[in-house]
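Late entry, evening session. Most of the bench is empty. Finally got around to the prediction I had been postponing all week. Sequence below, unchanged from the version circulated by S.P.
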Amino acid sequence: MAKPEREFFPGSEADWIPAQGGLVPGLFERILATDPERGVATRLRHGSWTAADGCLSFEVRHPR
């Protein structure tokens, strides 16, 4: 099963949840679409993105 194709919709339809099951403290995500068979997802992430060991996540911010 492929990820569902969705047109524009408010990201607020998905709740913020701890990313990776809380593995990275302070990192949260909204999962917008998933394909559990392939293990892929489209998500929005927010929170901590650096650590002493280097980058854990890369956040891109687009100007309004």
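Two things to note before I forget:
Residues 14-55 form one domain.
The two ends are 34 Å apart (CA to CA).
Will write this up properly tomorrow.
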